[in-house]
Amino acid sequence: MNGQGRAQSKARAGLLREAWALWVSPLDDEHWQRRMLPGGLLLGLFPLLLPLLWALGYLVAAAQSPAGALPAWRPLSRRLQDGARLFAALFLYGLPGLLAFGTFVVGPLVTSGALSGLLASVAVQLAQALQPIGLAWLALLPPLAALVLGAVAQAPPGAALGASPRALWQLWWRSPAGWLRIWAMEVLLSGLGSTGLFIALVGWPFTAFWGLVALARAVAGVTSR
Length: 225
Prior knowledge:
Elements lengths: L1 H23 L7 H13 L4 H14 L13 H19 L7 H10 L5 H38 L10 H10 L1 H18 L10 H20 L2
Helix pairs in contact: 1-8, 1-9, 2-3, 2-9, 3-4, 3-9, 4-6, 5-6, 6-7, 6-8, 6-9, 8-9
């Protein structure tokens, strides 16, 4: 038991060291300010679609380069195109999660009288039955998002989407242990990325983008094997 405990402690320590190495890796690029700061600014404007697409496109570029210099923001058209593909894939895979909010939609319709009688009863029962499926899907979205990022990054530039279920399965099957490790690091990097919330809230977009770039480079490390 003691040997097993030491092995587990060693594995956790190794995971923490790897996550920290990914977190600080952008500093190895002498131009890290001009690479990372624009991403934070764009992420801070996330209610607007165009800045969000550019930020997502940069993550796709980061997921194509596991080490060395950070990718450039140019060509902007390529970043925008890749961001649109990633956004579309994440949106489509996120749709089943809407089932978690079915009761919030059906409830007001019933109370307002828009739905009544047998139709209201069926709608309420259906929404309640599907809600656990939606909640389970929402829980799966963060690890699924890492796979989607890897698939889009690996897809040819002209691919319409690049993240089909078959592509995700093939990517997972190439390195199951690697993806399990990435999902563990995703939790750690998300925690580091949230530290900006303590900097008068304005620092959150920058630390969040920093964490996402670190995660993208971890994804690149698996997909490039």
